[in-house]
Fold:
Amino acid sequence: MKLKVLWVGRTQEEWVRRGIDEYAGRIRRYAPLEIAEAREEKGAAAEAMRARECERLEKLVPKNARLVLLDERGDGMTSPQLAAFIAKCRDSAVPEMVFAIGGAYGFADSFRSRADRVLALSQLTFTHQMVRVILLEQIYRAHTIINGEPYHH
Structure:
């Protein structure tokens, strides 16, 4: 199963870029991975910014993909539960799984309704930059759990 991670805006911090590269490389040992950035909207009302950013994200989501949105109001999941979810999708012949991180104002309702799952990484609030690395680390951790490797203990 192919994996795709989408987010709004460019990665600005060098340490975040290094973290992204590290975990993307680790994930690619298990599955094909694509990372794509949608242009961030600026200078509009929050609702308009959400709508425009989600239009850009929508264009990056293949029609047959399973879409998981990262949102602070989403469902919580443990790392083993995430691993089981990814494995179930893989075993159900889902061709592509897409994880999307929204912009500063989150997702438009229309895009949210398209999602197969809305997931919260934590009850804590993280910067959008940090969430990129945390999500990739959790996807990597999920694959080590699926493969019975000792990374997760």
The longest strand covers residues 66-75. Helices lie at 14-27, 46-59, 79-91, 109-114, 128-146. The domain at 2-146 is CATH 3.40.1280.10 (Alpha/beta knot).
